[in-house]
Amino acid sequence: MFQFMKNKILIPALVILALGAFFSFRYVHAAGLTQQQRRQMVLETVMKTIQAAHFSPRPIDDSFSVRVYKGMLGFLDGEKLYFTASDIEKLSKYEYAIDDQILAGSTEFFDSLEAIYVRRIDGSEKIFKDILKKPFYYGATESLKFNTETSADGDETESLQLNADKKEYAADEAGLSERWRKHLKYRALVKYVDAKKEQEKKKENKDSVNVKLKTDKELEAQAREDVLKSNERYLKRLRKVKSDDRFSWYVSKITETEDPHTAYFPPLEKKSFDERMSGSFMGIGARLSQNDDKTTIASIITGSPSWKQGQLKAGDVIMKVAQGEDDPVDISGYEIDDVVKLIRGAKGTEVRLTVKSTDGAVKVIPIIRGIVEIEEIFAKSAIIKSKDGPVGFIYLPEFYANFNNINPRSSAKDIAKEVMKLKNAGVTGIILDLRYNGGGSLNDVVEMAGVFLGRGPVVQVKSSHSSPSVLRSRSFDTAIYSGPLAIMVDQSSASASEILAAVLQDYNRAVIVGSTSFGKGTVQKMVNLDDVLDDASKMGLRSTLDKDGEPSSLGSLKLTMEKFYRVNGGSTQRKGVTPHIDMPDPYDGYDEEDLGERHYKSALPWDDIPAVSYKPANSIPNLNQVISMSNARIEANPTFRLIKENAEVIKKKREDNVVSLNEAEYRKEQEETNAVSKKLEELQKNAIALEVTNPEEDMARINLDTASVSKNKEWLKAIGKDIYIAETVNIINDIKKGSMNVSIGTGMK
To answer: Which residue has the higher pLDDT, 347 or 225?
Structure first.
């Protein structure tokens, strides 16, 4: 996803003014807005903002209505476990009427849908509890003969269709209960078989004499108990969801009919979005986990306020939370998200945690909140030893940026620093890993390209009402690094990742390796919906308080306003970036239409525009030879061959999508599915690992505490065992045979 940094946002005052003049609101009251009036205002503001500023707004008509209708049903009940055919019949009158309701300021469809949904959620408790009281019958095997007399369910030939799209809604209450029975039986079967396999391993162990083994009857009962607890936790979460939250889901489904990336953010979700993008938040820096209603400290983030304070430890159970000297709040039974809200707060304020330590001691720990940086999203580098010299490796999980002036870090600056570290270490080539990188800041990807290209055009950006504008890298006079370069992408690499891979491919600057990327070629910008209201409506809104006692807000809209295009004029929309070297991918077993942007029915189409003038920079002289040599190695590699074979197994399984509820048949299916996977694991386990180290400049940070040392050790080990990275090292060494020069640029201004 994309968002410009605030000083670069181009929706700006003129568009906001135009939107304000376009709107005419009717819901102004001195005492503020009712819930219904606020919802009507949200809908009207969202729809008119989309119609006025979206890159390609769709008409609000019957087709729009059908998309919203089906989207909400699928979102609330994707497995068809809650609604019956009679429920759908009652709701069907709205299928072609939602457009008219929205234009009239009505929320009738949502209100009716919510009423049925809440009733069905509550009713599900009795259904699953009654079903899970009795043992399941998984076939006439010796292990489950005990079930034949006490279980009234099914027969030995039962199976379950996992693809809900291939199933109709249950006809009535009895049909709904039967659907739940099969669903629960399958989930319990998975747990039961897994538990049996664990016991079988224990029996093979020499020390099994000292291990108390459970009977099949006990294992089956435990499987049902585990499923019951899981369902109870899920139901508890569903019941805690407020009506306003469900309404936000509804608005989001409406925005998604425009395109997959236009989204509505209530105020709190907008704050969370900004934190994710910046890689930091205000808090204490403790990761939490929850089990059996206990909230436990899972780990402490290195460098955070908790880490500096020193008393809070992993394993501590939080009992109470107090804001400074205020009375503490007993958090027993709280959901983990609610505990997080209590603990987080403004910089410099104090939170006091009453915790029970692993030794049983109870104590109150005061911590002053501060900036917590989530190191996992930041760029980091390593050095891989190879026969032809050291190769630098940089991992970039996101294109993060400083949107709220909380965190001065940006991905472009950090990549430049990592490149300089690797050059100081004398690497002879660099790999930039953008796998699983979903994008982020457009400004940062433009400047990041300059690290490898210097000044020059990087990407074209176009709105529906303007000519394309060319964004150029300007932070670097010349490339910081001009040596052998490879970019790793996969089917999850999207947006900013695709811009960087595309421009380096167009300039012939890097070899792109991996799988065809996601195919997101659109640019989103945040619009604060409050800003587009007229003054009278703002007064009515702000005189209403939200649940935390703060002035109410309509929230924000992440709006697709532009598309981006490569310097060669092509779009990455839907098509993605095709790598020079296509490596076998485990997801190759999925149909092309199941993955990436093309998977979304509302995705905008591919198109192209004229190219801009650009000159290849530090081109790879032996690109064709590099591609040919790598393809030959991949074809001959037994691990890559097994990955291909495994993808075929996955594809066959997905096409079938039916699982047996007979234990013997289920185990047979699992063995067939896992056979190739086990061979693959064995090959990877016995593979000779690459030797990987850290840049010297990172050692002080890594050695801050044992947790950092341990995490770093695991990361280096993962790099060393990654077959895709190993082949990319070979590719870097092949590029070097083409006599590319490695030079040092003038660096950042």
So the answer is: 225
pTM (2 d.p.)? 0.83
pLDDT tens column, 15-33:
544 555 444 444 444 446 7
The sheet with strand 380-385 has its strands ordered as 581-582, 511-514, 485-489, 430-433, 391-395, 380-385, 691-693
Residue with tokens 């040392």: 709
φ/ψ of residue 242, rounded to 5 = -85, 160
The three-state secondary structure class of 551 is: strand
Looking at the DSSP bridge assignments, the partners of residue 381 are 394
Q: State how far the Cα of 707 lies from the Cα of 306, in Å rounded to an integer.
A: 14
> Which backbone phi and psi does 419 adopt, to 5 degrees?
-60, -45
C-alpha–C-alpha distance, residues 183 and 233, integer Å: 17
Mean pLDDT taken over the chain: 86
For residue 668, what are its two tokens? 């047979």
In the chain the domains, ranked by start, together with CATH numbers, are: 125-240 (no CATH), 283-371 (2.30.42.10), 375-541+554-736 (3.90.226.10)
d(CA 262, CA 218) in angstroms, rounded, equals 50
- CA-nearest of 540, 382, 398 to 32 is 540
Cβ contact 483:423 at 8 Å: no
Q: What is the pLDDT of residue 591?
A: 58
In 215-342, the DSSP E strands lie at 263-265, 280-283, 286-291, 294-300, 317-323, 329-330
- Residue pointed to by tokens 């910008």: 525
Task: Render pLDDT for 146-194 as a digit per residue (tens, 0 to 9).
Answer: 444 444 466 678 999 988 888 999 999 999 999 999 999 999 999 999 9
Distance separating alpha carbons of residues 274 and 331, to the nearest angstrom: 27
Can you give the pLDDT at residue 126?
Answer: 97
Give the bridge partners for 551, in sequence order. 545
Cα separation, 171 vs 169, whole angstroms: 6
List of residues 6+ apart from 57 with CB closer than 8 A:
50, 51, 258
**Four-residue CA torsion sign, 236, 238, 244, 248:** positive
Would you give the DSSP letter of residue 662? S
Beta-carbon neighbour count of residue 723 at 10 Å?
19
CB–CB of 62/575 below 8 Å? no
Is residue 401 within 8 A of residue 5, CB to CB? The reply is yes
Cβ-contact 532, 12 below 8 angstroms: no
Q: Report which DSSP code applies to 357.
A: -
Confidence check: pLDDT of 105 > 50: yes
Sign of the dihedral defined by the CA atoms of residues 217, 223, 226, 227, in that order: negative
Distance, in Å, from the CA atom of 288 to the CA atom of 338, rounded to the nearest integer, reads: 12
Tokens of 267: 């105020």
Burial of 635 (0-12, 13-18, 19+ CB in 10 A): exposed
3-class DSSP assignment, residue 600? coil
Give the list of residues 6+ apart from residue 376 with CB closer than 8 angstroms, or none: 397
Q: Does residue 275 contact residue 331 with C-beta atoms inside 8 Å?
A: no
